[in-house]
C-alpha cells in the first residue's frame, strides 16, 4: 500500500521514483567473510533481488513514475580494494545488472558509494571505475562524510576531482 501511494503521488506531481531492491540489514557484517562465502552470499542477494523485481514488475510495471532500480549494497572505500574481493563484488554487480536487464530494458539501475578518507582519492576512483566496468549500472551516487563532519571540504575536493577524471568518458553517470 505504501508503494502504491508513493507512486500515485509521484505520478500526480510528475516526479520520477527509483525503487530500491532488497535490503539486508546484516550486509556490513556479512561482507567481512571469506571470499568463497562472500560469493555465495552475493548469489543469494541476486536471487532475492530477482524475486523482488518480478513482484515489482507484476504490480507496478505499467506505472510511468517508476523509472529505476536501486541496488542497496553500498560501495565503501575500504572493503573492495583487495583484488579477490573486488572481483567477487564486480561479478555480483554484473549479475545484478544482467538479471535486471533481462526483465526490464527501460528502467535505470543505480547504486551508491561513499568515502571516509580510508583510501587515496585516485585509488578510490579507479576502484569504483573497475567495479562499474561491464555492468548496466547507469547511476553511481557518491556520498561524502561532510554531512556528519567526518571530512572537511578541502579533504573532499580531491575525491571529486579524481572521480571527474576517471569517469570522464564512462557510460556511468556519477553524481
Description:
By secondary structure, the protein is α/β, with parallel strands linked by helices. 51% of the residues lie in helices and 16% in strands. It has six helices and five strands. Strands 1-2-3-4-5 form a five-stranded parallel sheet. Helix 4 links the parallel strand 2 (66-75) and strand 3. Helix 3 packs parallel to helix 4. It is globular.
Summary of the model, kept short:
This protein has 175 residues and is an alpha/beta fold.
Which helices and strands occur, and which strands form pairs?
Layout: H1 2-13, E1 17-20, H2 27-30, H3 35-60, E2 66-75, H4 83-103, E3 108-114, H5 121-132, E4 139-143, H6 153-166, E5 173-174
Parallel strand pairs: 1-2, 2-3, 3-4, 4-5
Residue stretches low in confidence (pLDDT < 50, at least 5 long) are none
Order of helices and strands: HEHHEHEHEHE
Q: Characterize the overall form.
A: globular
**Helical content band:** 40-55%
Total number of beta strands = 5
Report the sheet with the most strands, covering strand number, pairing sense and barrel closure: 5 strands, parallel
Rg from Cα: 17 Å
Major sheet: arrangement of strands: 1-2-3-4-5
Q: Which structural category do the helix and sheet elements fall into?
A: alpha/beta
N- and C-termini, Cα separation: 31 Å
Average pLDDT confidence is 94
Strand content: 15-25%
Task: For the structure shown, list the relevant keywords.
175 residues; alpha/beta; five-stranded parallel sheet; 6 helices; 51% helix; 16% strand; globular
Amino acid at each position: 500500500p505504501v508503494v502504491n501511494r508513493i507512486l500515485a503521488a509521484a505520478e500526480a506531481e510528475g516526479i520520477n521514483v527509483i525503487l530500491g531492491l532488497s535490503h539486508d540489514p546484516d550486509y556490513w557484517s556479512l561482507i567481512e567473510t571469506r571470499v568463497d562465502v562472500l560469493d555465495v552470499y552475493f548469489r543469494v542477494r541476486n536471487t532475492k533481488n530477482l524475486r523482488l523485481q518480478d513482484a515489482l514488475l507484476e504490480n507496478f510495471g505499467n506505472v510511468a513514475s517508476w523509472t529505476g532500480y536501486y541496488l542497496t549494497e553500498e560501495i565503501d572505500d575500504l572493503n573492495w580494494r583487495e583484488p579477490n574481493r573486488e572481483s567477487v563484488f564486480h561479478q555480483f554487480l554484473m549479475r545484478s545488472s544482467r538479471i535486471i536487464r533481462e526483465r526490464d530494458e527501460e528502467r535505470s539501475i543505480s547504486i551508491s558509494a561513499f568515502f571516509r578518507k580510508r583510501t587515496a582519492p585516485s585509488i578510490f576512483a579507479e576502484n569504483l571505475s573497475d567495479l562499474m566496468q561491464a555492468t548496466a549500472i547507469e547511476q553511481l551516487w557518491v556520498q561524502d562524510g561532510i554531512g556528519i563532519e567526518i571530512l572537511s571540504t578541502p579533504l573532499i575536493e580531491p575525491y571529486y576531482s579524481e572521480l571527474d577524471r576517471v569517469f570522464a568518458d564512462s557510460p556511468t553517470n556519477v553524481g
